[in-house]
Write a structure and sequence with these properties.
25% helix, alpha/beta, 9 helices, 6-stranded mixed beta sheet, Metallo-beta-lactamase, Chain A, globular
Length: 300
């Protein structure tokens, strides 16, 4: 693969709308266990309705041509919860006024995708970008959601430059709960370096960084990461996690804005290593100040 220069964005800001996928991790794990474990189909799991929340972020950037852009990344899980989040953070108005360029669905997991009606309520014709590999059931959910706009499916064959300074990459990987494929965003921020923005990072954070090294030209350093890094989502820890953090530290990132499935223990271990974790407020439902939480904003 020849390297691609994706250009530059002039600025990049990410606001965490919600990183709380569910309220009680033990309840979530029990729901999965009772339905057959991680090999079960997420559509067959008997989820506890009151436990559902959702993951979503607002990305604001000015592209290389000077045009402001707004991306709504992921739309959460519980529709009522996400409707409240979108109202609290002003996303409802942005959608209604046509200020959101597109919805970017990182993958089809329940906590990132099933809250779609909460967004379409305010703009049913908004363009939606999804990774290839969506299951038939997720396709049916999309069709039944009253969406009237374009759906663009992005495949894994090459990076997709969405606008100057921003590219999307689809990772063709199996994911638990019978889902497949996840996409992530890369921004080359002028004067700073490469920033990757991920929903759940099932391809692995090192995998995301290695991909950029192999596929993108025109940049000399990484600057930051935003999103769930899926290192210790249930606070499990061992030699594999230790090794991963040691490898991650070698990339000399300037901003680690991690949350969601990263794990609080992971963030504590990062801080012990002197890694540049962006702290949050621990408010609006987020459980710790150690990481970027609900309502917190990161400027890269």
């Amino acid at each position: 693969m020849s390297k691609v220069d994706i250009g530059r964005v002039r600025s990049l800001t990410v606001k965490c709308l919600s990183e709380v996928a569910w309220h009680d991790s033990n309840r979530m794990r029990q729901d999965v266990k009772e339905s057959g474990g991680l090999q079960a189909d997420q559509f067959d799991v008997k989820w506890t309705p009151e436990n559902a929340a959702g993951v979503s972020a607002l990305i604001e950037t000015v592209d290389g041509g000077g045009r402001p852009r707004k991306i709504l990344m992921d739309v959460g899980w519980d529709v009522a919860y996400m409707d409240g989040v979108f109202h609290r953070e002003g996303i409802d108005g942005m959608l209604s006024r046509g200020e959101i360029d597109f919805l970017y669905i990182t993958h089809e997991h329940v906590d990132h995708f099933w809250g779609l009606p909460a967004a379409l309520k305010y703009r049913p014709d908004v363009k939606i970008l999804i990774p290839s590999g969506f299951t038939e059931k997720s396709g049916e959910l999309l069709q039944k959601s009253s969406h009237t706009g374009r759906v663009v499916e992005l495949g894994p064959e090459a990076p997709h430059v969405l606008f100057p300074g921003c590219a999307s990459v689809t990772f063709d990987i199996p994911i638990f709960l019978k889902t497949h494929g996840e996409q992530a965003l890369y921004f080359h921020v002028e004067g700073r370096g490469m920033v990757t923005v991920t929903g759940c990072c099932h391809p692995g954070v090192i995998g995301l960084l290695e991909y950029a090294e192999e596929a993108f030209g025109g940049f000399t350093e990484f600057h930051g990461i935003y999103g769930g890094l899926h290192i210790a989502p249930f606070e499990e820890w061992g030699p594999a996690q230790e090794e991963l953090l040691d490898k991650l530290k070698t990339y000399r990132l300037q901003q680690l804005a991690c949350n969601h499935c990263t794990g609080i223990l992971t963030v504590q271990k990062m801080l012990e290593r002197g890694m540049p974790v962006v702290r949050g407020t621990g408010s609006r439902g987020s459980k710790s100040e150690y990481y970027v939480g609900n309502g917190d904003t990161v400027v890269f």
